[in-house]
From TrEMBL:
Stated name of the protein: AB hydrolase-1 domain-containing protein
Residues of the signal peptide: none
Domain spans labelled AB hydrolase-1: 89-200
Lineage: Bacteria, Bacillati, Bacillota, Clostridia, Lachnospirales
Record InterPro entries: AB_hydrolase_1, AB_hydrolase_fold, DNA-binding_regulatory
UniProt xrefs under Pfam families: Abhydrolase_1
Length: 310
């Protein structure tokens, strides 16, 4: 090889490496670096905004803090139920949000008189953390919260109810060995695997972010995440977790969801080894079922809970 050819090859390789590193870093900042939700950010429904204010201003709300297994300080809002109530719901929010975003659900559970725990997932709200876990580490954090409840009330009967990334976290939790206090789970709009979800979302991104082909983008992002966050998102597979689940689970989704494909809900349902139920809300986009058809949404949940003696 001539010196000129070698120089050209070196220049090309350097360009590829530099460009790949730049693209990986840009994708990491977009997908993995937490972004706090501002109060000025509009919600998809006024009902969600009202729910946020309801949680924030609830007279009996208490701030609770625990430490994760890797020593992060985690926060949750706890709203007690009626006296001598042993039913608890853990409401798990989605990406780019906080526990306040689950207020629209908490308002309904308050009508039942239940105790409510609304955790901030790591990196969001008042919880520490510098990366988005997509359910990877979050599942262990939720298990820590479960044991916080049991320590408070050994007779606790616990329901997990998550939306979007919170739904995936819920399913990842059910794939672990859980105490008998965890009786049921609700997954609203979970993805099957993070890899598949990233591939779907990547095709919809602004060209300023999706600057390289997806066949190269995902491996670069995977490497960046391994280096900077210490986990492999290719291994985050709620669809594998549900194969190990013994927790009765209700799978919810909207048939107009463009963010997480509705077909993923059916795949999760089919794969689940636990007692299970399924409900698709017509006309609902991503996690919109709770307000697009509120009556159907809560009726299905009530039926599911009744079927499982909750």
């Amino acid at each position: 090889m001539s010196k000129k050819s070698g120089f050209v090859l070196l220049s090309v390789l350097s360009g590829v490496l530099f460009g790949g590193a730049f693209a990986g870093n840009k994708l990491y900042d977009f997908a993995i670096k937490p972004r706090q939700r501002a109060d000025s950010t509009p919600d998809s429904s006024e009902l969600v905004t009202r729910g946020r204010k309801w949680v924030r201003n609830h007279a009996e709300r208490r701030d609770i803090y625990i430490n994760s297994i890797d020593s992060l300080r985690l926060h949750a809002s706890f709203i007690p139920g009626k006296e001598n109530e042993h039913h608890y719901v853990v409401l798990i929010h989605g990406i780019w949000d906080s526990s306040e975003g689950m207020g629209i659900y908490a308002q309904e559970y308050e009508k039942k008189g239940w105790n409510m725990l609304l955790p901030d997932l790591r990196g969001f709200g008042q919880s520490e953390g510098d990366y988005v876990g997509y359910g990877n580490d979050d599942r262990y954090d939720i298990i820590e919260w479960i044991y916080w409840i049991i320590k408070r009330d050994p007779q606790a009967r616990i329901l997990l109810h998550g939306t979007s990334m919170g739904a995936a976290t819920t399913l990842m939790v059910t794939g672990e060995s859980l105490p008998e206090n965890v009786k049921c789970a609700i997954s609203d709009s979970s993805y099957t695997t993070v890899k598949e979800e990233f591939l779907d979302v990547y095709e919809t991104l602004d060209p300023k972010v999706a600057i390289i082909p997806k066949w190269l983008a995902l491996p670069l992002l995977r490497l960046e995440v391994k280096i900077r966050a210490g986990y492999d998102f290719y291994k985050i597979k709620p669809i594998e977790a549900v194969k190990n689940s013994t927790t009765p689970t209700l799978f919810l989704h909207g048939d107009a969801d463009k963010f997480v494909k509705p077909s993923m809900c059916r795949e999760l349902f089919d794969a689940a080894a636990c007692k299970k139920e399924f409900c698709m809300t017509l006309g609902a986009k991503h996690i919109e079922g709770v307000w697009v058809d509120s009556k159907k949404y809560w009726k299905k949940i009530d039926e599911f809970l009744e079927h499982n003696n909750f």
